[in-house]
Amino acid sequence: MDLRLVAELHKSIKDCADRGLVVAAKWSSELYLSIPQHKRDALCEHPTTFSTSTPARSRSPQPLLSFAVDSPAISAGLSIPPKARHYAPLPTSERSPYQSQESDPDQADDAAFLAAQAFFTSKEFSRVVHVLQGCRSEKAQFLSLYCQFLISERSTERNWYKNFSDRDQPAIPFNRRLLGHLELVKNADDPWLLFLKGLFLSRLNRREEAVESIIVSLGRYPWNWSAWTLLGQCVGDAQELASLLPLLPFPASHPLVQMFQIKSMNELNSPTENELALCDHLLGDDYFRGSPWVMSLRACVLYHLHDFGQAEKQFENILSLDPYRVDDIDIYSNILYVTENRLKLTWLAHEFLERDKDRPEVCCLVGNHYSLRGEHEKAVKYFRRATELDRTYLSAWTLMGHEYIEMKNSHAAIEAYRRAVDISRKDYRAWYGLGQAYELLSMHQYALHYYQRATALRPYDVRLWQAQATCYEEIGRTRDAVECLKRALLSAGSQEITLSLKLAKLYEGLEEPVEAAAYHKRVVDISRVEGRPIQDYAKSSIYVARHQMVIPGGDLELAKEYLERIAQSNVEEVTQATDWLKKLKSVMLSRPSTTPASHGS
Description:
By secondary structure, the protein is mostly helical. The chain contains 31 helices and two strands.
């Protein structure tokens, strides 16, 4: 992290705050605070030495950004026109005429803009628009238009909730004034207005144009985290993200690109060890060592990788540095819920409920606390409270659906999960929840459809393949069930024995003893390697032994070994194994020539 990047980050705090982008300003402030002190001191000593632009990235022509039509997250393809690739940040010297043109309007609008900032802080958005009438500076134009958008959003939400019970009501509010807002920025050149243009286009579901506008905006002003967040929301799946990254006007080693990649993969619930390595790199001495924000990114990666122990330790480190940090506290509560750490979850719920009870993250935390105690009605109450505070809070809708499943209220669960899907179609948990709800109603065809949507988003999740297999089995499509379980075996891990047993039973039902015996033998082999007790694989041992006895040229020595091990134990299959041993002796006497001279144990 050289001093030029530090200078850009420092400048972005004021630039974002001036324009009312509070979340982006907070993000920049948190990162800047984690910059080593000697670099911040050097910046103060030489405040005008460094340019505040990012050099253009040299590149060869790139292919168009194309999003697959069959992606579960979208209904149509998306491609970026070639011109979007050629935008890059302008060096300071090239931008000086533009900056000098803006300096006079900035000065003339100073009093009105200061008043507008005060009104914005008080959430008096109409007064902001009124006081900025006639202002010519691009900062003032941005803040005025942004407030017009916020006013129309507030009005849209109010009208939507007023007709909430109307059957013809759209699933999510639609702001009818967006086209008018878009008209005001259609020819915008300023990076901040280009960000607004991208925002309006994304809300109109014109993702192709939105992505183009956001990339141009970021090329001209990289340190607007709100623009990066918006770009992430336009990405439907990991494949789309991989297509998008090469089109960004920054090298892959740029910290912004790395943070965007990690954040996007977390939101897609599919980070890998690569994202974990990027987090460790960003937490190094050269970048943001000790940054709670980057540490939280890392904790979320560990959570999605199911390394709950390390994720819990990471959150503990975050709270030791910043005990009042609420962001991502709901993820921490999910970890404590999964690990059934009742004591710590109870303490955390009481602490944060007193500190900030009106944050949706805290409501989810408290809901998890009650859910772990089996008080599902109270859990639903707090999850619903979270959705009232933020209608778009995805986790709350999903967790509410889980609670209704626990309460066997499938219809309420379906409603909650559908709300989650309406907010984001790229979260597999809501699709999986819908599948569970319909499975409870014995509507297996519907359940299968939703499980398939979830699996498309998370293809290496064993649970999703198992769920599909169960549905196929219920509707009599055993062959498809077998294929799903075979796919699950590719990333089975600790569930390999369970899946192998299930496959063996399915093949038994299909009257294919060769395949059934192969999976039973797999159970025996894995169990012996892992040192499991004999009762875990006694039935499989007997099945393999019987199969070897009845097939021509069967391995009778292997059958004998398996049966003797069971007969010499104290499991309940002892009598059965002893009987089969007697039959085995007869078989061996009748066809001694077929017995192999040796076998692999």
